[in-house]
Design a protein that fits this description.
Layout (H helix, E strand, L loop, with lengths): L16 H56 L3 H13 L4 H18 L5 H9 L1 H9 L3 H14 L3 H12 L1 H6 L7 H13 L6 H55 L9 H21 L6 E3 L2 E3 L4 H28 L1
Antiparallel strand pairs: 1-2
Helix pairs in contact: 1-2, 1-10, 1-12, 2-9, 4-5, 4-7, 5-6, 6-7, 11-12
Amino acid sequence: MARKPKAKFEITAENKTGRAFRQVNSDLSRLAGGVKSVLGPLAILAGTTALVNFGRNALKSADAIGKFADRIGISTRALQEYRHAFKLAGVEQEETDKGLLTFSKRIGEARVGTGALVEILRRLNPELLQLIINSRSEGEALEIIFKGMGKATTASEKNAIANAALGRAGVKMTAAFKNGANAFFETARAASRLGLVIEDKLIRNAEKLNDDFTTATGIIGTQLQAAFLKLAPAISTATTEFTEFLGVLGKLKRLHIGPDFESTSSITSFLEEEIERLKTFRDTGLEGGSFSLFGFDFKEKTKEEIKAARQEVQFEIEALQQILENVRKSA
């Protein structure tokens, strides 16, 4: 009995297009998974680092308040309140601190009978000078000076007292006494009521905490570095996959199946049009005459060949649909 011949294709060109589409689809899928696997751990690292930096800065700030208050001999509460009052009067902290440092030097000189404070106030206001010399602490002496500035009846007298006690910065600080000393002290005390003052006991612990925190951040920093190094391979993989993704788009171009892609929307538009074209070809374009498809030249046109061709077209449609889905996800 003669054997019935099987349907076959006469292939005159190698079909590389199908494999290329499948590789494109695989590359896009891998890219999406690789990038997502790295984002979570990196977000945790970033959050932890921000928290560590915030803690370090808070301790440094508190420690600095304590050290500066000790340098000029007043309480940490008074320092913070005075800074607040002068700032509201338009005097920056740097200028305030300069004036307070000058005060610390000149009050020491005054107690041994020398210096600018003695020379100026001996002629301008001897009673005020005596109160300052008899004060029991730098904090008390500073209050006396501020009250004297508030009671001054002329701008020149106020400036002279400020310059004698606080130096050149003191002249700028007189702006805080526009409404007298009582208004100044009330503004200063408001800082504590508003929660703008750090408690002294917390500040006094800051130096030890700062040392402990330095040690702790060293440990944390080491652990973060170790964690980052562990993530390095994954980060490298994600970077490589992104580079490969750009190559995927290049593959589409090299297959001569689309225009030059300038944006994701141009890629999706092309793919949508190509899918519709293939659907039309699958449904109506396989009847009559010879045809070429994906590198295949069809010399014969049996029913079996047409059926096989439709299956091949459907396979490529599905491949393009998957590529389109992945492009949309990666956009």
